[in-house]
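Margin note from the TA: students keep mixing up input and output lines. Inputs are the sequences; the output is the structure of the whole complex. Example:
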Amino acid sequence: QKEVEQNSGPLSVPEGAIASLNCTYSDRGSQSFFWYRQYSGKSPELIMFIYSNGDKEDGRFTAQLNKASQYVSLLIRDSQPSDSATYLCAVTNTGGFKTIFGAGTRLFVKA
Amino acid sequence: DVKVTQSSRYLVKRTGEKVFLECVQDMDHENMFWYRQDPGLGLRLIYFSYDVKMKEKGDIPEGYSVSREKKERFSLILESASTNQTSMYLCASSLTTRPAQHFGDGTRLSIL
């Protein structure tokens, strides 16, 4: 089992819809959770982080964390074609010294 | 604006060569990182440094070494390049050790 798992996609959604990106992790003691966006041919860009159970909203983005289920998600409301990218989930392990990245989910927003 | 600059976007080297990848940041960050990114495997940490002359091994340090002689510069060295080191290499810097916050544009390295 990979330490951080994401569906590779591609996930295709129509413009204006909600895109839901999911990530599961294996270390129950993980402390911090991050979402990066990576456009094709570009480097990753940190867009969201969450530390506590529940939801965290920032503009059109909402990160959701459920530590009991070892599950973190990213919702993108009113998806735009410019949101088309690969989204990487990253998890910092117990002790907080190691960050593991998932392989990423490709999102495609159709105009 | 924050800037992490990697010396080359594309690099082609031969098996057995010693390869240097350079990275410079202008944010006065203590922490710098080297990752490689391969399809289906995500980002994997090779080494990181939390201060000048300090370094820590990441998940896949074998075949690599690093140098941090100045705060702004972090170099990755492939001691004797092999074909399985063909990859995208990303440098990053951060105010905190977890996780890397600002990435360079990457170096696509091909070992022939």
